[in-house]
Amino acid sequence: MFSRIRKRFSYANVTATLALFFAMTGGALAASHYLITSTKQIKPSVLSALKGKAGPAGANGANGANGAVGPAGGQGAKGETGGTGPQGLEGKEGKEGKAGKEGKAGKEGSPWTDGGTLPPEKTETGTWSYSEPAGAQVIASISFAIPLAKALEEDAVHWVLQDERTNECKGSAEKPEAAPGSLCVYEADDQGKTLLTTPVIIRSGRSIGAPERGASTAGALLDFGEAQETNENVRTAFGNGTWAVTAPEE
Predict the structure, then answer these.
(1) Which of 17 and 129 is assigned the larger pLDDT?
(2) Does 145 have pLDDT greater than 70?
(3) Could you tell me the pTM of the whole model?
(4) Distance (Å, rounded) from C-alpha 177 to C-alpha 244?
(5) Among 17, 35, 158, 241, which residue's Cβ finds the most Cβ atoms within 10 Å?
């Protein structure tokens, strides 16, 4: 029987019963002894017994509005270097650039400047030869690859026999040399088939009939005279050698 009564007890039933009790017994008694104005006046164990179980959770409400954007965070630490990516495709050929400005003229080269002359105290060398029949005028030519700045006079040109040396010509047919301002012509082989054993060295470009001894800026001629037949079986005169010319000092 008591279980039935306990099942019917609730917070609302107790409150209503107390209200009815105080109404029937009078307000004075309630005011002086048992006036309850707050649930704090009721023993907690009584309240917990009177409270019912919590109901199920209600449905979620609507989302609230987004909050304001916060300040930017600090810079993070540098990440590790990534691996090498694949090689990209070759780009298109660019347009041809504009032509550059013409550069300044370079300094004159030395000693082989085109159109220049042999520098002071510089030497150039060459060879000479002749082969003529008996009775012919024997002329051998010498040509300077690099012209001289000025012509050489008669005393500056020298004929050098095979075993001969001079102050101006201290070389040989194998190694021709010449002092500054001199032309030295070295004999290497002469069969002696000529009228003159020593040629007349004349300036090239001059008339053979009126030779001017010496050498021009371009070279010289060796005039051996008329070839003479000295052996019935040999009717040709021939000879050869080398030469060296050195430009004068400044």
Answers:
(1) 129
(2) yes
(3) 0.53
(4) 5
(5) 241
For residue 71, count other CB atoms closer than 10 A to its CB: 5
Q: Which two structure tokens, joined as six digits, stand for 17? A: 């019963």
d(C-alpha 3, C-alpha 18), whole Å? 21
Measured CA to CA, the distance from residue 247 to residue 152 in angstroms comes to 10
Residues 138-152 as b or e (16 or more Cβ within 10 Å = b):
bebebebebbbeeeb
The share of the chain scoring above pLDDT 90, in percent, equals 28
pLDDT higher than threshold 60 for residue 234: no
Burial call 13-30: b when 16+ CB within 10 Å, e when fewer: eeeeeeeeebeeeeeeeb
CA distance 13 to 21: 12
> What gap in Å lies between CA 215 and CA 81, rounded to an integer?
81
